[in-house]
Design goal:
Elements: H1 26-30, H2 32-43, H3 51-89, H4 92-122, H5 127-158, H6 167-193, H7 198-223, H8 227-252
Length: 266
């Protein structure tokens, strides 16, 4: 498990859960093993099982897919917050741990991708359900790529680059990290709940991110840092901007919800 210092709260003795600062994901992360058990049962189903039970097990798969997808949103959000904390504070050990944790995101991405592909190939889904699963397949690489962007920030934090930043640059990085993490929390809300009010808020946050990025680049140019450091800092700014862009794009393209898995009151 990761060190509690990786939590965005930074409180010593915090629960050793790398995604603990995302309250909306706590239950989903806590129930992750249960979800994997459901998938294992589905994959190993006895061909002679009662058809009614077969249908019940089949109906479990999309909720499991949804659960793991929200876990991925949580991981990206928390990795972004953790990488920002490590970068601004020069915490190289925390940065190394975050780089290692990217393997967890990659593994979960592959697991969900396999679940969706199996559902498409083996279960002859309805057209509505097929559209949902195809939308998930399109969404997953963007989640994985966003995890890589957070990892790239953490990789820069492993190097002693914080000492080269001006106080203003450090403040801008900290704010970009806050905005990016919030955008990913909002994107997760849109995915989990289909919250219609999220879209407007995301546009506002995206505009703020663009302004922060522009200001950050201007600060780098005017600070007189060595060329190599300036390039590294410019890349960091670009990573945050892309994290925001991915969050906005995912919010705009949330897979449709099938009535089979959600009640009319959802």
């Amino acid at each position: 498990m990761v060190d509690p210092s990786l939590s965005v709260s930074g409180q010593p003795g915090a629960e050793r859960n790398p995604w603990a600062s995302n309250p909306w994901a706590n239950d989903l992360v806590a129930n992750g093993n249960a979800g994997r058990d459901e998938v294992t049962m589905d994959a190993g189903m006895d061909p002679g099982m009662d058809p009614g039970m077969d249908a019940a097990m089949d109906a479990m798969v999309p909720p499991v897919i949804d659960r793991h997808a929200v876990e991925l949103f949580a991981m990206v959000s928390e990795a972004t917050a953790g990488a920002t904390h490590a970068l601004v504070n020069g915490d190289r050990e925390a940065a190394r741990e975050l780089v290692r944790r990217d393997e967890v995101i990659d593994a979960l991405y592959r697991e969900v991708e396999e679940l969706v592909e199996a559902e498409l190939v083996e279960n002859d889904p309805t057209p509505e359900r097929r559209r949902y699963l195809v939308a998930m397949l399109r969404m997953l690489p963007e989640l994985e790529r966003s995890g890589d962007l957070a990892e790239h920030i953490a990789q820069r934090a492993v190097r002693p680059i914080a000492v080269e930043m001006s106080p203003r640059s450090r403040g801008l990085v900290e704010r970009m990290g806050e905005v990016a993490s919030l955008m990913w929390t909002k994107a997760a809300d849109a995915f989990a709940d289909g919250a219609p009010e999220v879209a407007l808020r995301m546009e506002e946050l995206d505009d703020e991110m663009d302004d922060l990025h522009t200001t950050f680049i201007a600060e780098i140019v005017g600070s007189g840092v060595p060329t190599q450091i300036a390039i590294e800092l410019a890349l960091i700014g670009r990573f945050y901007e892309r994290l925001g862009d991915h969050a906005v794009n995912l919010t705009r393209n949330v897979p449709g919800r099938s009535p089979r898995y959600h009640s009319s009151g959802d």
